[in-house]
Amino acid sequence: MTKDIIARAGEQVPRYTSYPTAPHFHAGIDATTAAQWVAALPADEPVSLYVHIPYCDRLCWFCACNTKQTLRYGPVQTYLRALHQEIATVGHLLRPDVAVKALHLGGGSPTMLRPDDLVALAGRLRAAFHFEPDAEISVEIDPNDMDDARFEALARIGMSRASIGVQDFDPKVQKAINREQSFALTKSVVDKARRHGARSVNLDLLYGLPHQTLESLTATIGQALSLGPDRVALFGYAHVPWFKKHQTMIDEAALPDGAGRLAQFQKARALIEAAGYQAIGFDHFALPGDPLAVAAREGRLHRNFQGYTEDDCATLIGLGPSSISRVPQGYLQNTPATAQYERLAAAGELATCRGIAFSPDDRARSWVIERLMCDFGFSARQAEELFGAHGHAIVVEAGRIAGEGADAMLERRDGDFVVRPEARPLVRTLAARFDRYLDIGAKRHSAAI
């Protein structure tokens, strides 16, 4: 990498799991708009569901998710009653023959739910929505939650993919982020998840954590790969204490700088690829036969709020506080305040508090940014065919970016624009060059690497 590219590793840019990004949603999109958009979904196109569980029984200091700690189960039960009502409300808006292709349970900690409640939640979803027979059911698992009854419940709801949080196995790092989890426990959970129906296991790892070193990260990667995961997500720790106050518990002096984060990422990537995994985008890896790897090779890779995915549904319906839906007309977001969400949902109202309608320019830039993030390039001809004048304007912009000399992150090859191989780890920084909203308002983001 050139010195200029390395210097960009510390730049703050969005993760681009959506475009426009969530900080630019606005209150002009409300529950009335949401009801109209959802009711207009075509019957012949499948959808995906995301269900958010906003509770954990411990608070990991690195976490930037919308969640809260509770040691009592009462608040969870209250929340579930509201969630059940929202499921019914949204289900009634959809045409009855709209099929669900995939369900993702996230959080928070979905596995914090008691086994009977987990099964009841799945039952409510299947009563309100028409699931395809082979619908994928993905569940985020906190190993510290798990017991035999919960594994049996996951089998009963048809879990086909397990996403297991690891972060790091080094005890010093775990203590610094308040996430103690032994390798033995993690191995047991991976083994039991497979025995209870998970055809695919994903492990989430983090770099850029306090007290992490290249040596400790190498050890963690080796332990994680010894479990034979089908997929690995390698995320850079997003230190955003202005957004998540509990991150102030992390000693900033123990965090690596931009160059250190880049070195950790490059080391981890090399180890994972050497073990036979295919790189997917800039922070995922999969075994060559995994559907995610196949989709990447065939140009069918997508990116949504869960990261890289082979899910090609144009519509993702989010349920629960802070959840974001993507529908053909734009984005919809539920209120993040759990109490307000419960009040609205329990009354049979939609909890949408903001969103954004896609403009023609948004659609063109969203496509370009997704192709950069997924394929590390895009076709100028295809951009112009799909989006006309808006696509042409972006092609002109891309030509200027590609002409910036030795330190340009983008280059033109015949009719395509391609991210230079050495700049791929910083593709978020390049994507930001096509973001019309980035300089609007005082928004802060996580580091590019």
Structure overview:
The structure is a single chain. By secondary structure, the chain is of the alpha/beta class. Helix content is 37%, strand content 21%. The protein has a nine-stranded mixed beta sheet, with helices on both faces. The protein contains 14 helices and 19 strands.
Describe the sheet with the most strands: 9 strands, mixed
Total of helices: 14
State the share of residues found in helices, binned by percent.
25-40%
Rg over CA atoms: 21 Å
Number of DSSP strand runs: 19
- Overall geometry comes to globular
Strand-pairing-aware structural class: alpha/beta
Strand content: 15-25%
**Lateral arrangement of strands in the main beta sheet:** 9-10-8-7-6-5-4-1-13
Instruction: Determine the mean pLDDT.
Output: 93
Query: What is the terminal-to-terminal distance?
Result: 14 Å
- Give start-end ranges of low-pLDDT stretches: none
